[in-house]
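As the next step, I selected for study a record pairing a protein sequence with its backbone structure tokens, which the following lines show:
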Amino acid sequence: MQKKNKANLALGISAAGFLGTMGLTGTFPAAMVHHGFLAATIGGLADWFAVTAIFHRPLGISYRTDILRRNRARIMDALVTFASEDLLSTDNIMQVVEKQNTGTLLAEYFLHRGGREKVHEVVNTVLLKAVNGLDSQRIAQELMPAIKQGISSFPLENILPEVLRLLAMNKHSERLLGSMLLVGEQIILSPALQNAILAHIRMLRENYEKDSAGRALIIASLGLSDEKILSLLVERMKEKLALWRSGQDHELLKSGLMAMLISLSQDERLKDILLDRKEQLLEHIDLTDYLARWMEANLKGDNPFWLEQVNAYTDERIDEYIRSAAWQAKFDQMLKDFLRSELSKHHALIPGIIRERLNEFSDDELVEFVEDKVQDDLQMIRINGSIVGALAGMGLYILIAVAERMWG
């Protein structure tokens, strides 16, 4: 049962008791109870009037009633002043904040409250939105001058002779020769080279035969078709390469390779050729479209390759923060200093925010809001008024009765 109904019930019982005992005042107990009900009724009515007068006009009486509505401006000023200058003052707020170790709370948030995942979500969302919003074509155009400058400053004409001299060393030339022989065998067996050799064999045969039927007859009688000649040539080259790989003439080949590499490394014309080719390349190269396509394919999307590295870096920083008491203390102090600074700087906004929120209530809404928050306590005043009134009425009756008996 709501306290308002209980208070009304107490007042009703008091009034009913008073009316019910009006004709039963011949004995002392009955008279005492009657006066108790009378005082309870008077106390209950007085408290009902007082409580109701705060929010409404009891019995239509407007003098000094409807207090909240009539004094709204003054009450709101007092509420705003109390809330902003006392309850929500900078010192009071910071006293509460200072009791908390925000650095430790942040570490706990990372460990047990899903903070790590939230940080990943925020970082990934921000970075993906930023990267996916980039104009790849424009960025590629802006990067091209830097790329060309990098290629231009790369001293290939000086590096390549050094690489050749390095390859001419015995241990490197040995491996290089082995690789060249292996690659040479694979090249000989490649369809592209065999087709090219076959085309040249056909051209040479046609030039050899020309208008001579005898030559054509001899070649045909020997069964030397173009494909047969190609097969014989390939087999011969394979045998020669196999001999070289097995060691025959190996030292001679290696010496020749080393001499060639040294000669190339000392040839000034090679530097000039490389420098000229680099200049030609820089004049005609345009990697803008290629770079833009690469950025679209690799940097953008929902799960680009760099996202995993970003998450790993974020995890490392979070783990380092969790392990470091110094970092936590630094964060705690930094956050508290920031809060104090911002509160001091913007504290004047608090009264306006509170007043704006209160002004959203109409008079009826404000009365209903306040009454709903305090009515239980106010109804207890009515109940207590009836109880205290009853006790006071019976007590006064007893005192009067005793006085009459003692002094007639």
